[in-house]
Amino acid sequence: MADRKLLFAGTALALIGLVAGGLYLSQSPASDGFAQCRSGAVAGGLEAFGTDFTLTRQDGRRVTADEVFARPSLLYFGYTFCPDVCPLDNARNAEAQALLAERGEDVQMVFITVDPKRDTPETLAEFTAMMSADMVGLTGSEAEIAAVNKGWRNYYKANDAEGDDYYLVDHMTNTYLVLPGSVTAEYYPRNTSPDAMADSVACYLDAAG
């Protein structure tokens, strides 16, 4: 049963990755202030991504979107029980963050759970500490998590119908660059290398002044 669940989850993530990749449609217009940094355009425009929220940080404090995104951030939606994809993606983001720090760029990592049932603040504190000393972990009620995922168009589905404590959660594997003011500037698929991500983020930060 466990092997079949892992196979299902892997297949679902592969399909989700293809759908997510399809969001990149064409080059951005020259009037875009970040045009020189963009690799493509997202259907509907990235300005449509994001939402206000109040969630619970890994230290137990309730924080708003404006408080979280007061600094440039690499935002990822995942869960701490994820067997492989989430740790690998966040390790890549941490490497990009370190490369940016070497350039003098101050960028934080933000992790919003898609599994609020198991991802308590304490659990998130352990996970974020393993990934980066400068990483924010956020959880909340199921309704709060559903709303914030909807704001970033992030699909997720917990396979917990059978009551298994070790259930998997299907989810998209996007990383977003969110600038101060909660402006979603870019979208990185999981095959983006740390160097390419660092170069792209640096371009946006330079363009933002």
Task: Provide an overview of this structure.
- The chain has 209 residues and is of the alpha+beta class.
- The chain has a single domain (2-208), classed as Glutaredoxin, CATH 3.40.30.10.
- It has 6 helices and 9 strands, in the order αββαβαβαβαββββα.
- It has a 7-stranded mixed beta sheet with strand order 2-1-5-4-3-8-9, sandwiched between helices.
- The longest helix is centred in the N-terminal third of the chain and has 20 residues, at 2-21.
- The radius of gyration is 17 Å and the shape is globular.
- Residues 1-31 have low confidence and may be disordered.
The quaternary organization reads as single chain
**How many structural domains does the protein architecture include?**
1
Distance between the termini: 53 Å
Low-confidence stretches: 1-31
Instruction: Classify the helix fraction into a percent range.
Output: 25-40%
Series of H and E elements: HEEHEHEHEHEEEEH
Please give the CATH architecture.
Answer: 3-Layer(aba) Sandwich
CATH level-four homologous superfamily name: Glutaredoxin
- Got a strand count? 9
Main sheet: strands, sense, barrel: 7 strands, mixed
Structural class designation:
alpha+beta
CATH class: Alpha Beta
The 3D shape can be described as globular
Mean pLDDT figure: 86
Strands in their spatial order, largest beta sheet = 2-1-5-4-3-8-9
How big a fraction of the residues is strand?
15-25%
Put simply, the count of helices is 6
- The name CATH uses for the topology is Glutaredoxin
InterPro entries: SCO1/SenC, Thioredoxin-like_sf
Protein name: SCO family protein
Pfam family, one: SCO1-SenC
Family: Belongs to the SCO1/2 family.
